[in-house]
Amino acid sequence: MNQPCPLPTTARDIAPLALVSVSVEHRGQRLLSDLTLRIEGCQRTVVMGPNGAGKSLLMRLAHGLLAPSSGSVAWLGATPRQAMVFQRPVLLRRSALDNLTYALAVKGTPRHRRRGLALAALDHFGLANLAKRPARVLSGGEQQRLALARAWLLEPEVLFLDEPTSALDPAAIKAVEEAVIDFHRRGTRIVMTSHDLHQARRLADDVVLLNAGRLIEHTAAKTFFQAPRTAEARAFLKGERVW
Amino acid sequence: MHARVRPFAPLPALCLLSLALPPLAAADDSITLASTTSTENSGLFGELLPAFKAATGIQVNVVAVGTGQAFELARRGDADSLLVHDTAGEEAFVAEGYGTERADVMTNDFVIIGPGTDPARIRDAGTVADALSRIAEAEAPFASRGDDSGTHRAEQRLWESAGVMPGGEWYRELGSGMGPTLNTAAAMDAYTLADRATWVAFENPQNLELLFEGDEALFNQYGSILISAERHPHLQHDLAEQWHAWLISEAGQQAIADYTVNGQQLFFPNAAE
Amino acid sequence: MTGDPNAFHIALALVLNLDAALFDIVGLSLRVSLTAVTLAALIGLPMGAALVLWAFPGRGGVIVLLNALMGLPPVVAGLGVYLLLSRAGPLGQFGLLFTPSAMVVAQMLLILPIIAALTRQQVEELHGEYRDQLQSLGVSRLRMMPTLLWDARFGLITVLLAGFGRASAEVGAVMIVGGNIEGVTRVMTTAIVLETSKGNLPLALGLGLVLLGLVTLINAGAYLVGEFARRRLG
Q: Where is each ABC transporter domain found (chain A) (predicted)?
């Protein structure tokens, strides 16, 4: 399952992410229980499961925004550069361009290089003519592309996307999926959640299926869609609710 | 293309501007005079201070408070000079060592103000003691300053000499300056003791009238006090001495005599006496 | 006598005649209150943001105290500053009592709790929205402070206006520490008190109307800037 990174220039090892017996509790409720999972290589992992399965929680844990109640979340090696794209993009109350230069400033890019890089990223994501527009008045699709452009500038080795297309129209969904492929081609490991089976078929190299805070199955996408190992996975693929 | 909107750009500049303005401090050649609201409200300082400044170049900053607070300011070293009207208190202040010299400056007198209907019939009273007794007997509303000011202290001495311990529903201690007390007395048709200067300059009398005046017991002496340089060496003693000397000089005394409101002289210089 | 010279006419006449004394008083009022707001903002904005970003023992106590101090009576603040600045007090040697600087200090103390407490509320709301994203970008807490303050700027304008309103309207503190000295520390509110005590109620009310008009103008200006920016920047 450990697929090498596609481009020779970036074909170096990105440390695997290992979750061991991870549980998350909140106000006495178990939201994730005893989850053990390893994500490695340069593949596109799609996390699936019904609402409330714990997909977003898993992303926040993996990205380090949340500490587990028990168990461990660790990179086996040097912590890679990461970025995350949220379901509802969080953009600062400034222009599209300023949102990008802000991220570059935080990253430590020298001041004189920020503007050029930011403009190039806007151009790359088809936002060049919106550079000076306030970010928060852009359409949903434009906002999500801006969030992707911001992630692009951070040159992440691992990119997390949490339901990045669930609030978008078909054209915007297509743009986001193309961007994901773009990132992957550049040598970025992709970890994204989705509840859209068709999207998962289009993008996934391997699939993680969660239900009710438990790991049901982690298999290569081909296997998952053609011959799922568990009864839950088969039911999920048929759109049935067996649990 | 959308123009860049920067509505907040001028803000920092404005803030800096307000800080960069010349320092907010009083002029160097100035003294702080603690005095009473009666002198301030009557407008006397409007006449005296420009004349003094023309003569010496010294600016006098008047902080007008009750006599009690004026003494306290001076005790703490927050005023360069005192001009108040409570002779007993002034002498105590000097005796305690806070003041070095006290001089009579001028007099005015207290008057009893009350509603024109005069329910206690004090208009034909023979003495101020008689007038106050009638008010107490009739239990007619009386508004007292109640703020430990010179006027309040004088009022308390007058009740004492009338043999009355004022109290009860009709006797209202306001804890206010002279002007607010007159405003309140006007609003509730009450009697009150006021200094003539404030009364004559007062512009909201409504039904109030001057009902009793002229008794020698209503005599009101103003004194100027120099503050001890030993206790408060930081004060502007040189300038304060010039002010003190000018007040009791011929020029100062004349300026006091010249001040009139509606053609009526309010303060009578008596330094030479 | 009180009813005859209408307060509106007096207010209008004061403004139209460009009364020099009035302009001095208005100018001093504005300078004192704007300086107090500026200084209180320099301290209160970072303070409010810091209370959101850093958890430390006793933070809850600080927040409760700030909220309580929003209701501090101006006279009490004035008395405290008086005792500090009085010659017999700890800061007496600077000779600030009965100067506009003393009034600035008193007003600043009055509005600092307002600005800090309301800033905390505004920033906390925004922080809830931004926290994950900023943390994901690797923004340090120290750096989050200016980011959050800048992005909360529309709400913070209202906060500063609330501070300015309280500063320019209060009389108890500036009366005690300023002394209402003509031409030196007399501001709109203390002038109104003085005219009231002289029984010149129409003039007092006229001055009150001028003050009200001034505060209204400033608020209207800030409102327009805020609305315009809000619409353009989303």
A: 17-237
B169 Cβ contact partners less than 8 Å away, ≥ 6 residues apart: B139
CA C11 – CA C16 distance, rounded (Å): 9
- Cβ pair C138:A107 closer than 8 A: yes
The neighbours of chain C, by the rule of 3 or more Cβ pairs under 8 Å, are A, B
State how many domains chain C has: 1
B224 forms bridges with which residues in the sheet? B83, B103
Please list every residue in chain A whose beta carbon sits closer than 8 Å to the beta carbon of residue B5: 134
Structural domain total, chain B: 2
Do B104 and B123 lie in one domain? The reply is no
Per the CB < 8 A criterion, the answer to whether B32 and B78 are in contact is yes
How many whole angstroms separate alpha carbon B32 and alpha carbon B63? 7
Q: Which residues of A touch C150 (CB under 8 A)?
A: 93-94
pLDDT digit string (tens) for B185-225? 999 999 999 999 889 989 899 999 999 999 989 988 999 99
Within 73-132 of C, beta carbons closer than 8 Å to A belong to: 129-130, 132
Q: Is residue B97 located within the same domain as residue B224?
A: yes
Structural domain containing residue B41: 30-108+220-269
Give alpha helix (H) positions in A10-160.
Answer: 55-63, 96-107, 111-124, 140-153
Q: Do β-strands B219-227 and B99-115 pair in parallel, antiparallel, or remain unpaired?
A: antiparallel
Whole-number Å distance between alpha carbons of A51 and A34 = 19
pLDDT at A3: 53
- Annotated domain spans of chain A: 17-91+138-237, 92-137
Query: How would you classify the pairing of strands B264-265 and B260-261?
Result: antiparallel
Question: Phi first, then psi: what are they for B34, rounded to 5°?
Answer: -90, 120
Q: Which of B24, B26, B202 sits opposite C104 (nearest CB)?
A: B24
> pTM, whole model, 2 decimals?
0.84
pLDDT at C133: 96
Architecture of domain A17-91+138-237: 3-Layer(aba) Sandwich (3.40)
> What tokens appear for A241 in the block?
């609710």
- Interface confidence, given as ipTM, is 0.90
Name all chains with 3 or more CB-CB pairs below 8 Å to chain B: A, C
pLDDT digits (tens, 9 = 90+) for C16-28: 777 788 888 999 9
User: Cβ A93–C129 below 8 Å, yes or no?
Assistant: no
Is residue C177 within 8 Å of C79, Cβ to Cβ? no
